[in-house]
Amino acid sequence: MKSKSRLPGIYLAVVTAISYVPIAVTIIYSFNHSKISSVWEGFSLEWYERLFSDADIFVSLRNSLILSVLVCAVSAVIGTLGALGVKRTNFRLNKVMAYFSSVPIMIPEIILGMVYLALFSFMNLPFGIVTLVIAHASFCIPYIYMMVSGRLFAMDPSIEEAARDLGASPFEVFRDITFPAILPGLLSGLLLSFAMSFDDVVISIFVTGPGFNTLPLKIYTRMKTGVTPEINALATLMILATTILILLSWKLNKTGDKAEEEK
Amino acid sequence: MSMDFSGTVSKGRKRKRGRSWTLLVPIYIFTLLFVFLPLIYMVYLSFMTKAEVWGFENRFTLENYKKILDPLYLRTFLNSLKLALISTLVNTAVGYPYGYFMAKLEKKKRDIMLLLVMIPFWTSELIRLNGWIIVFRSKGVLNLILEKAGLIDKPLKLLYNYQMVVFGMIYALLPFMILCVYSSVEKMDWKLVEAARDLGGNAAQAFLTVTLPMTMPGLLSGVVLTFIPSMGLFFVADLLGGNKIVLVGNVIQQQLTKGRNLPFAAALSVVLMILTSLFIAAYRRITKTDQLEGLI
Description:
The complex is a heterodimer. Chain A is mostly helical. Chain A is built from eleven helices and no strands. Chain B contains twelve helices and four strands; from the N terminus they run βαββαααααααααααβ.
């Protein structure tokens, strides 16, 4: 089925080019000397200098990193244990629980924001890092649960049984067999969770407290208040970091694939 | 990766092991405390009376739901629904062929394309929208080009209208659709398509009877992942629509902040949740798929 049509290639190129317009523009204008106009007024690192002397941005970057790492840790434990538990028990309620745990990723985020704002005021929880971790975990746990669970159920149960029959302790079985089998699922779940939590605006805006700004919230307020070339500089650095991370994880995946092929 | 909606895969061989249930304690507690109860609380709140300053009084009322029937709010719901439908439709029309063509490229080119899709996908939506604002604002790149080209005398007002919000929403969510479709086309068994052709079907017939049904799970996840957020991403309307374009998400946000009307925000959320669930249920029934696929 070899079609010689060039149409698909052109289509892909055009759509990709359009989707890169804002990214390219952001990077170019982060080096533009002018503040408001789009006219190129010469190369300048002014906005980067401003950015690096902006303590506010760095505090919120640190906050965001701490938050996302905590969210990933909490979600990994709850989601993975949950997936293991569901595989090993056959309670009728498991299905109901699994359904409800996936609700947060099945509804518009604004509803979660509203719900948590109401709940945390009712519970008298102080708004800040704790409320943010709970709210973010609610939409990260389902991703990790689903991905680990997918791996677990694709596993051949006879391997675990064989290991046990050969005298391995439950811990050894988990360490040497179950864990390596679920690890790829866990990792992609973690990656997705980290990105979702790190970028979240809609939920964070409702459950954050005074004195705990995350980076996206900071960017959002700056964008709302007007023209901000500093944000272009920040965005350029974030795009760079994202690209490096993607290339790295890609490389890791590739070496992993190769190792598997060689086996 | 494929999974059904409840996230469980049925009929695995299960053995009872003494204390395995303890593994379930954290997820049961979290789900009960931070998903199930909050949802119940939201429904409860939506029937309560607004308090003078902030919060609510424990007095049952249908006032909040009656208020939604006000033409002002009804129009908001219709606007949001329209926007979500357009955004989902355009994303399907643009994203499906994209994911499909991408999956049919040779390995090397495919890897490069995948990388090119991944970069915007992992980049914050705010940052990508910021780039479009630079392009479209009155002193923006596009106006500059048009003016230099002598096509216009004074800058066009491109930002802050409904079309711009629709465009921004489509742009923000397109990578989700592409990746979902791509992952299901990529693992398709092309022998089935060949068989359909060998049996005398033309390309269109083969696509409709084999390819489309087999990529339905990917398409379903794509639709879910574009429709649901388009109903609630208030910052897109906020940044690209100015204060003029008001969607349900914005109304809920305003009721929580400026309006200080928690019960009404709850009622709006309940209706929004019912609407999205109905849409997804209908879509699942029509396409007869139960699987989500391609969540990377």
